[in-house]
Design brief:
By secondary structure, the chain is α/β, with parallel strands linked by helices. Strand 14 and strand 15 form a beta hairpin. The protein is built from 16 helices and 17 strands. The protein is globular. It has a domain of about 90 residues: Outer Surface Protein A, domain 3, CATH 3.90.930. Strands 13-12-11-10-9-8-14-15-16-17 form a ten-stranded mixed sheet. The protein starts with a strand and ends in a 12-residue tail after the last helix.
Length: about 475
């Protein structure tokens, strides 16, 4: 028989220390309620409760779940059930508790510790905005019509900027982005050579369509660019993929070329993440694409691969369609997980029991900078023009940086949402999914991660973000 409460994980010790344990009410009749930051799943012989702020996880007897189905019960009722521990650890709180304030107090303490003054740890660098494809869904379509290309002058300023702001005890992390970054492979080569020559340690990843790699370039990327991972998007099997990608003339057999290049990357020791871009039109074909990938790559190659499906950026504009799509995507990702049961580097996924105030790269700004080909600096590749941070020539505009970092009052539904501590409060994000669809998406993700943890495995579904 399950004991009343069993601790599965103590959670984030620093958060627990900052919040402290709640002291018992003086009056036994004082009203209590469940914490807004508790998510629970049925776990066979009981219910697993996960506190999204403290990250503590407990297993409780089925009889106790009634305390999380509503409020209006008293300390005496809780004590009679032997569940005082749920109150002490914040799973149950006083009826008038201000948990939103507690969340921000904890978050601000973490941010002050994590934001390195003057040091920039991660760069997203766009050598150019041009691309050799014209994807039908590309949110950068307007950029490719007036393509920007980094000049020698901007390149030199960038190298100086990185040297000036490099962290003292860790390598600089670079993500090559575009456009198609390999259309500017010589610029990538120049920057990497300059950093190596200046003695600045760095590692890199790349978001690419994969069409311009080769065996030789894959080896060079691993050796000289310190490329550890490449994310490549597929839109389906050959016919669907080529219809949506719309490559410019000059690339023969695009689908076969990309698949061959994935083999080259894996052979060079570079991890490959394959993101299957999904909308309601191509979902069926993506199941076939997953089957193809499972047959195409060896078991050894799959150890260096991650495959997952994600909704297209453009789907966010239609909330009802997005809800239906996310439900189908859950089915597709479960299907993919059976075909690719491993394929993630051990420890790569964030620990669900560690508090992380940096949910997205733009909030808070400062530790990550996006460098456009013309030298402008942004906090995120999706940032609108008015939220530019400055330029390589003039540096970071501290007033704009402060405006992006500043605490924003969340809408009422965010303040009481169980997923606020594991969600971005950056409400100016142009790709933010509207409420309540964001809530349902987070609920699916959290359920998956909790079940994977309870089963002793890693999450079946994981997304690196925008």
């Amino acid at each position: 028989m399950l004991q009343t409460i069993k601790v599965l994980h103590p959670g984030d010790k620093t958060v627990a220390l900052l919040l402290g344990k709640q002291t018992a009410p003086e009056h036994p009749a004082e009203l209590l309620r469940p914490s807004r930051f508790v998510f629970y799943v049925f776990a066979g012989d009981g219910y697993a409760l996960f506190h999204t702020l403290t990250k503590k996880t407990v297993l409780v007897a089925p009889a106790l779940i009634r305390f999380f189905l509503g409020g209006g019960y008293t300390w005496e009722e809780l004590r009679t059930q032997g569940a005082e521990g749920l109150f002490e650890d914040g799973f149950i709180v006083r009826d008038g508790a201000d948990e939103y304030r507690d969340y921000w107090e904890v978050k601000n303490i973490y941010l002050k510790k994590l934001l390195n003054k003057g040091q920039i740890e991660r760069y997203v660098i766009l050598p150019l905005t041009a691309c050799n494809a014209r994807c039908v869904y590309c949110y950068e379509e307007t950029l490719t019509d007036q393509a920007l290309t980094m000049t020698d002058d901007i390149q030199d300023r960038l190298i100086s900027f990185i040297r000036e702001h490099a962290p003292k005890s860790k390598p600089v992390l670079i993500q090559w982005f575009g456009g198609e970054p390999l259309c500017g492979s010589q610029r990538i080569d120049n920057i990497c050579q300059a950093l190596a020559g200046a003695g600045i340690p760095f590692l890199s990843t790349m978001v690419t369509n994969g069409s311009l790699f080769s065996a030789a370039l894959s080896e060079k990327a691993a050796r000289d660019w310190k490329l550890e991972e490449a994310q490549i998007t597929l839109d389906g099997t050959k016919a669907e993929y080529e219809k949506r990608k719309r490559y410019l003339p000059g690339l023969s057999s695009p689908f076969e070329t990309v698949i061959r290049n994935i083999h080259h990357l894996l052979s060079a020791g570079i991890r490959v993440t394959i993101r299957l871009n999904a909308d309601m039109e191509n979902l069926g074909d993506l199941f076939a694409c997953a089957d193809f990938l499972a047959e195409e790559f060896s078991e050894q190659e799959k150890q260096g691969m991650k495959v997952y499906a994600h909704e297209l950026f453009s789907c966010d504009s239609d909330a009802e369609m997005l809800d239906a799509l996310l439900e189908r995507l859950e089915e597709l990702n479960l299907y993919i997980a059976r075909l690719f049961p491993s394929g993630r580097k051990e420890g790569e996924e964030k620990n669900i029991h560690r508090f992380d105030p940096m949910i997205c790269m733009a909030n808070p700004a400062g530790n990550t900078v996006v460098v456009a080909p013309d030298g402008r600096l942004f906090a995120c590749e999706h940032m609108p023009e008015e939220l530019a941070l400055g330029s390589l020539e003039d540096g970071i505009d501290l007033a704009r940086l402060k405006a992006i970092r500043e605490e924003r009052s969340s809408e009422s539904h965010c303040e009481s949402c169980a997923f606020l501590p594991i969600c971005s409060d950056f409400d100016r994000c142009p790709s933010r999914i509207p409420w309540p669809h964001c809530q349902r998406k987070k609920e699916r993700e959290m359920k998956d991660r909790m079940m994977a943890y309870l089963q002793g495995g890693r999450s079946r579904v994981s997304d690196p973000g925008c």
